[in-house]
Amino acid sequence: MTNFEYAVHRTLDSEGVFSDDKLDRGGVTKYGITETTLRRTMPDVPIESLTKEQAIEIYKLWYWEQPGWYKINDCSVAAVCFDAGVNHGTVVAGKFMQRALNTLSKQGQKPLLVDGWVGDKTLERMNEMLPNEADAIICAFNGERYAYYKAIVDADESQRRFIRGWMERLEVPLGDKICTS
Description:
- 56% of the residues lie in helices and 3% in strands.
- The chain contains eight helices and three strands; from the N terminus they run αβββααααααα.
- The radius of gyration is 16 Å and the shape is globular.
- It is mostly helical and 181 residues long.
- It has a three-stranded antiparallel beta sheet with strand order 1-2-3.
- It has one domain: Chitosanase, subunit A, domain 1 (Up-down Bundle), CATH 1.20.141.10.
């Protein structure tokens, strides 16, 4: 299983198939793809007709290649970044990663700019820490995600209905045991 296949498999397990929950801020989704993302990529495909294969195409383009998660030298770290990009947007996921890496940086190391754009400096810092610090990176990253979810629920009680599903997304992946590249 490739890193991308593993990441998609994990995320699809969390996303389900079709959702039209009026309280879900993501709006109508299918396989975790919003109508906005679908229109940007496949404007002639109605969301109800989106296939799993088409969703995976969109995932690969917008949530794997565009933010650069494929450049991460660890399957598990790449998978949590990918999932966060799908769930929160790739810029927010990039900020989570930059803050997590800043938390784990060596004393005296210049902090990364937290702008959400995962460029060469962010990837270089991350890949210097891998594979030895993969678990610490995931833990710090998921701490950022937890705080984000908590802030949503604290600000809007109607969102509490989603918290358990969101918490399940924070389960630590075991991708390094099954990924090949």
